[in-house]
Amino acid sequence: MTQISQSPAPRAARSNTGRFIGLATLTTVVALLPLALPNAFYVDVAIRIAILAVNGIALNLLMGYTGQISLGHAGFFGLGAYGSAVLTAHFGWSPLWALLAAAAMTAVIAWGVARVILRLRGHYLAMATLGLGIIISIVLSNETAWTGGPDGMAVDSFSLFGVPLSGERRWYWVFGGLLIGTVILAQNLIDSPAGRALQALHGSETAASVAGIDVGRRKVGVFVLSATVAAVMGSLSAHYAGYINPGIAGFLQSVELVIIVVLGGMASIYGSIFGAVVMGLLPQLLAGYEGWDSVLFGLIMVVTMIVLPRGVVPSLTARLRSTRFGTKGNAPC
């Protein structure tokens, strides 16, 4: 008997249902989590996880869906943070206008840089973005008069229309809302014609060009979007923490974002969230193994990628679908 293949409509319906369930679950967790957090320390950890998750989703749009490698993405996070800090501390700008200006400045810089470096591919692109991140970090360290140099600088508290935003609980709702909003925007982008064009670039830029896609414009656009999101999160994180130093734009922070994307799953929105949770919680859980925490962390990463080479969420999703439908599922979350 000839096996009848599934029609696209049921697959699309399952995809939409899965995304609705994922979003509903995320919203529920964000709404109820404060009830389970006993003190401000745990709320702070949750906030930092949300920051990592938003940055991870933005970077995944660039790396996972479009196939463009970036090893200097923390540099844009640092530009947003220092842009807000400098404008509020040295020029007396309000935090909201400083955030918007820092994001716009970062978008312009990213646009100019992307038009040049995105002509490169593979490890050449990786080296170029790595160099970009290092340049940003060095500039932030050397401009002592404006940035405080290696010692960093204090950042004014954030206020909106004269109302100060203070306390971990209030900031939790800001970053939790941003995380949910980022997920919604990312899902809508991926499902749109522009999102399908980005995924076509990941498959083959030549084929995408033959199909009529403006490859250069699409790559620059997603690079600017990803950098702008990082800048906004950098600005808000600076106001939340009240202090920044050039380390936030360093190479290790960029590697951390790449680990979040790869560990959780390339081309997986919820994979980025899972990766952020792991990167936020695992150092805390391993803190008791002083001297061995880095070794255990690396070992866990290696074993995870060997067992789940496509990333945790896509690999587990594929296995579940394979078990349920008797086929090899291949759809990201």
Automatic annotation (TrEMBL):
Main location: membrane
A GO MF term: branched-chain amino acid transmembrane transporter activity
Segment forming the signal sequence: none
Membrane topology, as annotated: Multi-pass membrane protein
The organism's place on the tree of life at top rank: Bacteria
Localisation per UniProt entry: Cell membrane
Membrane-traversing stretches: 20-39, 45-62, 74-91, 97-117, 124-141, 171-190, 222-245, 257-282, 294-313
InterPro entries per the UniProt record, alphabetical: ABC_transp_permease (IPR001851), LivM-like (IPR043428)
Record's keyword terms, sorted: Cell membrane, Membrane, Transmembrane, Transmembrane helix
Any Gene Ontology CC annotation: plasma membrane
PANTHER family, sorted: BRANCHED AMINO ACID TRANSPORT SYSTEM PERMEASE, HIGH-AFFINITY BRANCHED-CHAIN AMINO ACID TRANSPORT SYSTEM PERMEASE
Name the UniProt record assigns to this protein: Branched-chain amino acid ABC transporter permease
Organism, as annotated: Azospirillum griseum
